[in-house]
Amino acid sequence: MILPVYLYGQPVLRKEAEAVPQDYPDLKQLVANMFETMYHADGVGLAGPQIGLSLQILVLDADVLKDDYPECKGFKRAMINPVFLEKSEETVSMEEGCLSLPGIHEKVARSVKIRIKYFDENWQEHEEEVSGFAARVVQHECEHLAGHVFIDNISAIRRQLNKSKLNNIIKGSVRCSYRAKAVGK
C-alpha cells in the first residue's frame, strides 16, 4: 500500500521517534508498505516519521545509485531501532534532497564512514560498517528518527534563502509526483 509522505511542517517530523516494540503488529507489512511508498516516490530512503509514524524504523534501497557510487550496489535494508556505534571524523559535503522537503536541495556535510547496529524486519540483529554515499543515506534517514531534517545542517543564510520554499511546503503549495500530506491537509 502506498502511504502519503508527510511534508515539512508536520509535527511528527520534529518529534523524537519511539523504539519499535518487538511485538509491533504487522511489522513485515509496514516494511513492505514503506518500500512501496519509497519506490513510488523515487526515493532511496524513507523513515517512519515521514509516513506519520513516530517510530524508529527506516527503509533504504540505494542500488539505483550504484553506477555513480559502487558502495550502493545491493544496499537495500530495513533498519529497526538503529544505533550509531561510530561515526568517522572525516566528513564530505554533498547535495541532498528529501521526500519531505520537495524542491529543496542543499549541500550537507556527513561522516564518510559509520558503524551502525540495528534489527531487520525479522528481528535479526545486525552490526555493520557503511561508507561513502550509502553511509550518507543511512545518516540522513536516521536524522528523521531524532526529529531532524537535513536543512537543520545548513547555514542560517542558506535556510533564509530557502524560506519561501519552506513556507510553500507548509502551506501545501507544492506539487509532488507522489502522495503527500501537508500541514492541515
Write the layout of secondary structure elements.
Blueprint: E1 5-6, H1 27-40, E2 45-47, E3 57-61, E4 76-87, E5 91-96, E6 106-111, E7 113-119, E8 125-131, H2 132-145, H3 156-161, H4 163-171, E9 180-181
Nutshell version of this structure?
It contains four helices and nine strands; from the N terminus they run E-H-E-E-E-E-E-E-E-H-H-H-E. With 185 residues, the chain is α+β, with helices and mostly antiparallel strands.
How would you characterize the overall build of this protein?
The active site is at residue 141. It catalyses: N-terminal N-formyl-L-methionyl-[peptide] + H2O = N-terminal L-methionyl-[peptide] + formate. By secondary structure, the protein is an alpha+beta fold. It has a single domain (5-181), classed as Peptide Deformylase (Alpha-Beta Complex), CATH 3.90.45.10. The protein is 23% helix and 27% strand. It contains four helices and nine strands, in the order βαβββββββαααβ. The strands form three sheets. The chain has a five-stranded antiparallel sheet. The chain has a two-stranded parallel sheet with strand order 1-9. A two-stranded antiparallel sheet has the order 5-6. It is globular, with a radius of gyration of 16 Å. The mean pLDDT is 97.
